[in-house]
Structures are given as structure tokens and as C-alpha cells.
Amino acid sequence: IRTSRVSFPGSFTAECARQHTLKILFTMPIDWETKLSASARRRPTNALKELCAPLLHKKGMVLLGGGLPSAQAFPFTKISAEFTDGVKVSLSEGKGLLSALQYNAGGVAPLREWASKLIAAKVKPLCEDWEVTLTAGSSDAIEKMFGLLVDEGDVVFTEDHTYSAALSNIRGYGGVAWGVAADHEGVLPAAFEEEIERAKKQGKTIKALYVVPIGANPSGAVMSPGRCKELYDIAKKHNLIVLEDCAYDWLQYTPDRKSKDVPGLRFGGFLPYDSDSRVIRLDTVSKFIAPGLRTGWLTGPKPFVRHFSKLSNLSTHCGSAISQSMVLSLLQQWGEEGLQAHIEKLQRMYQTRRNIVADAFDQHLKGLADWRVPDAGMFFWLRPKSLEAEKKDSRSLIPILLKHNVLVVPGGIFKAEGSDAPSPWLRLAFSYATDDDLKKGVEKLALVLKESAVASEEKEKASSS
Ligand SMILES: Cc1ncc(COP(=O)(O)O)c(C=O)c1O
Fold first, then answer.
1. Strands, DSSP E only, in 220-376?
2. CA-nearest residue, atom 12 of ligand 1
3. Cα(288) to centroid of ligand 1, in Å?
4. Of 20, 30, 329, 446, which one's alpha carbon is 20 to 30 angstroms from that of 464?
């Protein structure tokens, strides 16, 4: 910014001009073309699909173009499903069956519209330049998203421990996953600023912040609106993209373990603060309906969504239209009230399991470990006291736990700096096991941690004598 060539009246100093220019720059929507990876910029569109898809339903058009199989060749007459609450969904001829079985550019449009309405009404993005595209679940979206953004050496900041599939994709595209210290609300703003400066000093290209704002995997952290806003402002100051993976917004719990209340349907994250279209949000039905459906959606700035859809048209075609039609039909029959009731039922079930584990930890693990009781998601995050010393790795406990037939995951798997890096943390999922198994698992964990505490005490004594 060359303020020296401009003459400003009176007390309008060069610093004033600099601040003014920065303000203008930072309230402008970001230039997505400068953020995309080289492969994203290079990739041509699916020309065949672009020509044929818009003409597919044009009246009077003789379709000799696309390689579509004949509807008469589909060996289905009906696809139907029954749900636990009595809702029945059925796709039959004239009722969505043939379009669900056919190639389907962009996925099932009414589901996309349903998701857009949900985002507008409940998440309330601040910017206007956003749209929704369907995905084959968040794993699909994560892989594509990093492919579209990350070039060799680009830095993506994350919590110091984060979702391992995101890390694999960042690294797979040659990026650097750069861990930032975190607390029970996720990434710490001061540490984020420090790490950005450190990366800049090393001459790195800083690209994005990837977070799981509600019920983080693995740490269980829940970002408050204040934390999201603070981190957003830092990302904006340094022109970073924010990638928010919102798989667990649906699974939120009441902190008070005695309460039978549940929070119900509510969403967190960064979109409500996104003044200049730099946030990409991922949602999935995996945790609130079923992962086998492979259905989700991405919300983001239109220029990015255009590139994302282009990639989808060349790969997954936005996922299975059969799954999407089933999900749509279920959501339509539920309506908002039915969805609320379903989410509350789920939250009650998982909240009870969370409380069982929290009570068992209080009973068996006091003095043996430190932990967080999560208010969202599926995971307890705990650090055995025997591993407190710097550089101790929880991986040493895994074979002993396996001998007791208990599986928990070592924190190292989620470590941003690399899965070989030591981490004293353990991740324990409370979502899957039965109530009895949860209690049994914690008892066995306590047994192993006691043995490990005794062993490390003896080691210390031997080394000091
Ligand atoms: C943070 C996070 N994102 C995404 C996923 C995967 O979601 P999907 O089943 O939609 O691919 C998971 C699943 O464990 C997750 O924990």
C-alpha cells in the first residue's frame, strides 16, 4: 500500500491512510481464484455433462446426446423403507423412482433446497453470497475441499489434535497441518495469532483454518459464539479461509448431568460472522440419521461452490440420488417438529451414555487421569497422569488395553504435527457400546491406568536412586 504518493488533507496521516485502505480491503469479499489450488484452476469442466444435463427435461427434445441407460432397463419397481417412528418412505414409478435411479447432475434438487432453508433459518450466514451443494457425506467433501485449496507447502491451521481424515487429506495434497494449542473451547485465539506469525516468518503460504466447532473430534471441545467470532476476526485479518466441519452440531448435551433436558436443534460455528464470504461449512446426515446413506451438504461462497460442483460432476455426481431421495422424503414427513423430536430423542440417548461414562470416570479414574466431560459429539478426551511428563505417548497403553479386550484410540493418531508425534491423550467414544460395556470398559481402563501409574512410579524411583 503506497500511501506516500497520495496527498491527504490536514491530519490524515500515512498511518490513517494505511488503516483506511486495510479496512476497505478487509471488507471486500475474498478473491477465490487466488485461493484455489493449481489443480482446481487447471481442471476443465465436464463438458459432456454441461451440454446434456440442462436439456434432459426440455419438452420435445430428442435425446440422442448423453450416455444415459434406458429407464426400462432398471430392474426396480419400488424402493421403500420403514423408520422406527412409523414413517414410511417409498419411491415408485411416477414418485421419484426413475429420476433417483438415473444419472442426476447436482443431486436431488429439493434436498438441496431443504438444506438451504435450514442453513438460512437456523445457521443464519452473515454474507449473502452463499449456496449449498450436496455431497456424498463429509469425508467426500473434506477430500474434495482440500484438493481444491491445498498446494504443496500450504499451511492449514488446526487444533493441535484434530480429525485424522482431515489431516490425511491435508498431507495427501502436500499441505502442512499446523497444530495450534487449544482448550475446552477449541483453538486458542492468542496461540492462533502466534502460530500465524511463526508460519509467516518461515515464509509459508498460509491458507486456511480447519475446525470442528461443536463436539470436536477428538477433543470434544465446543466453541462458544465468542470464540468463533474471535477466531474469525483473526482469520479475516490474515486473509485465511475457514473450513468448519459441523458433523456433531446435531449431538449437543446439557452440561448439568442431573438434568433430563436436552438442547435440541441448534447450530454453532463461523457462518454467522462471515462478513466477507470466507467460510465453508460441512454438514452430514451420518451422525443424526445414518452414515451408510453417504449424504451431506456443503455451504460456501458461490465461487467456491462452483468449483466444488465441477469436481463432483467429474467424480461422485454429488452422491447417491436414491439415498438423497430417501433422506428428503423422511425429512419432509418429519417436518420441523418431527426433526426436533428425533434430534431430542438422539440427544437424550447419547446424553445418558455420556453421563454413564462421566459417572464411571468419577468413580474409578480420580487421581489416575484428567478428562473433559463433553457437551457435544461422541468422545471423551482423557490424559492419564502416568503420562503427564513431556513426550510420553499413550500408544504404550493400547496393547495392554487390548489384552483386556478394550479399544480406545491413542491421541497420536490425531496429532496435527504428524501421527508419529507423541501424545499423552486417549480418545474414548461413548456412542457405540452398550451401557454395561461402557461401565466395564471404564473399570478395565482404570485397572490398566493403575498398573501404569505404579510402573512409572517404580521407574522414577529406580532412576533417582
Ligand atoms: C469431524 C468429522 N467429520 C466428518 C466425519 C465423517 O462424516 P461422513 O460420515 O459424512 O463422511 C466424521 C466421522 O467420524 C467426523 O468425526
1. 241-245, 279-284, 296-301, 369-372
2. 247
3. 11
4. 446
Same domain, 140 and 175: yes
**C-alpha distances in Å from residue 399, one per residue of 352, 408, 456:** 29, 10, 17
Report the domain count for the chain: 2
Name which residue sits closest to atom 15 of ligand 1, judged by CA.
247
Ligand 1 centroid–CA 163 distance in Å is 8
The Cα 182–Cα 167 span in angstroms is 17
Q: Identify the burial level of 121 via C-beta atoms within 10 angstroms of its C-beta, where 0-12 means exposed, 13-18 middle and 19 or more buried.
A: exposed
Name the stretches of the chain with pLDDT < 50.
1-11, 24, 26
Range of the domain at 113: 95-340
Q: Please identify, by atom number, the ligand 1 atom nearest to the C-alpha of residue 212.
A: 1
**pLDDT score, position 235:** 98
Distance of CA 144 from the midpoint of ligand 1 (Å): 14
Say which amino acid occupies 11. S
The three grid cell numbers given for residue 128, joined into one nine-digit string: 449473502
Please, which residues have CB within 8 angstroms of residue 397's CB and are 6 or more apart in sequence? 384, 387, 410, 426, 448, 449, 452
Contacts of 224 (CB under 8 A, 6+ apart): 185
Same domain, 324 and 363: no
Q: Are residues 186 and 236 in the same domain?
A: yes
Whether 304 is in a domain gets the answer yes
Closest to 294 in 3D by CA, of 318, 275, 330? 318
C-alpha cell at 118: 435450514
Residue at a domain's end among 309, 340, 371: 340
What pLDDT, in 10s, does the model give residues 213-260? 999 999 999 999 999 999 999 999 999 999 999 999 999 999 999 999
The dihedral of CA 92, 94, 100, 103: what is its sign?
A: positive
Q: What is the CATH number of the domain that holds 318?
A: 3.40.640.10
| Sign of the alpha-carbon dihedral angle for 5, 10, 12, 15 | positive
| Orientation angle between helical segments 321-364 and 109-118, nearest 10 degrees | 40
Orientation of helix 138-149 relative to helix 302-313, angle to 10°: 110
All three cell numbers of 57, joined, read: 427435461
Candidates 143, 146, 163, 285: which one to mutate for ligand 1, based on the most atoms within 8 Å of Cβ? Answer: 163
Tell me which of 340, 365, 389 is where a domain ends.
Answer: 340
**Is residue 384 domain-shared with residue 235, that is, in the same domain?**
no
- Closest residue by Cα to atom 16, ligand 1, is 217
Mapping DSSP to helix (H, G, I), strand (E, B) and coil, where does residue 243 land? strand
pLDDT number for residue 435: 96
β-strand partners of 206 = 155
For residue 210, the CA-to-ligand 1 centroid distance in Å is 13
Q: Please name the residue whose Cα sits nearest to atom 7 of ligand 1.
A: 138
